[in-house]
Amino acid sequence: MAPEYSGPAADPAPYYTRVNRPLLDLLPPGLAAVLDVGCGAGALGRAYRERHPHSAWTGIEVHPEAAAEARRHLAHVVEADAESIDAATVPGGPFDALVYADSLEHFRDPDTALGRHLRLLRPGGVVCASIPNVQHWSAILNLVAGRWEYRDEGLFDRTHLRFFTLDSLVAFFRTAGCAVEEVVPLIPRPGVPAISGWDRHEALLAELERLTASFGLPFDRRRFLAYQYVVRARVLPTGRGRW
């Protein structure tokens, strides 16, 4: 059963200081060196190190204020654009894991960026990411209504440059040579204020089920309920995984 969570759509804490708990739980234990791409204020690394004190985290963060706060919690912080940074200048590597906490969707060219960052991983290293799901029912409802209204955060964050569904994010990692080991759909708790239309979302899901059936398409309600996915993938020579 997919976990319910508060998530970006409901968490009142400032964006850069939030800890993505589902992503934290997906990280393997005992990682010696981690590269957090788009680390914000370093909250995720701080929370992981509370569980695993000997883990050393390097963060890349483009916003100066967030980077300054992250330096209080991480071993190294590079204030730079993660897409244009010279990988050879990133300290703390090679790394056991790459982490993208709500950052890949902000990249101009996530395919090229991930490929460059993968060179910093040790053989058999993992990539863990949280990625918004544009197949969420609220996005479909807005399209039906003829709206695509950008906001400060959430699915319609005005700084999002790329959009993913479950199938496209799995294809994204496969193309990069990663075997996807686990994908967890994150379903917001009912009544999240930032998601309008909660009172009638079940009616929309029923219509979507009828519509997909009429086109001979499979229907998985979790794909429409998931606001985000957290993903763990591993670079393997075989390129084969569960997905």
Structure description:
This protein is an alpha/beta fold and 243 residues long. It has one domain (4-133, 159-190, 223-235): 3-Layer(aba) Sandwich (Rossmann fold). The chain is 28% helix and 23% strand. It is built from 8 helices and 8 strands, in the order βαβαβαββαβααβααβ. The protein has helices at residues 21-26, 43-51, 64-70, 110-118, 137-144, 166-175, 201-214, 221-225, and strands at residues 4-5, 33-37, 56-61, 76-79, 95-101, 121-132, 178-188, 228-235. An 8-stranded mixed beta sheet has the order 1-7-8-6-5-2-3-4. Strand 3, helix 3 and strand 4 (76-79) form a beta-alpha-beta unit.
Please give a handful of descriptors for the protein shown.
globular; 243 residues; Rossmann fold; alpha/beta; 8 helices
Question: Short description, anyone?
Answer:
Helices cover 28% and strands 23% of the residues. By secondary structure, the chain is of the alpha/beta class.
Any idea what the radius of gyration is?
A: 18 Å
The CATH class name reads: Alpha Beta
Determine the CATH superfamily: Vaccinia Virus protein VP39
Poorly predicted runs: 9-13, 239-243
Distance between the termini: 18 Å
Q: Helix/strand-derived class?
A: alpha/beta
Q: What share of residues is helical?
A: 25-40%
Count of separate structural domains: 1
Strand order of the largest sheet: 1-7-8-6-5-2-3-4
Number of strands: 8
**Main sheet?**
8 strands, mixed
Sequence of secondary-structure elements: EHEHEHEEHEHHEHHE
Strand content: 15-25%
